[in-house]
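Entry type: protein chain
Record version: 2
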Amino acid sequence: MSLYAKLSQLGITLPPVATPAAAYVPFVQTGNLVFLSGHLAKKDGKVWVGQFGKNMNAEEGKAAARAVAIDLMGTLHAAVGDLNRVKRIVKLMSLVNSTGDFTEQHLVTNGASELIGEVFGDQGAHARSAFGVAQIPLGACVEIELIAEVD
């Protein structure tokens, strides 16, 4: 099954690349690696604001991270023209807006990792970091960046 058929089966429509809100570009390719800038979690078209351990829990976070993964795939599609060119999702780095006593950043980030694995199969198995941070731009609950290898 092609990646686009899998996305369709999951009811996912890839969004267009968001316009950067600061001094950066949404992606950079060097050699066979494509680096995607951090993408903020969005809900209903707006930044998904919240802090884990204060007003959000890990299950909500999983949904937020999954939403970020969809945006990341949209940007990756724009960067390479065809997701079928992706040889490997190399790494995800996740920043989770957390209080000092919240320790389930890995469970939040699973929302993105699980969707990437479901869509890309073996090529979606990736290295990953999940950090708890005191704040993310615009008060977003999650920010994730991605590195992919393409042919």
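Comment: The chain has a mean pLDDT of 96.
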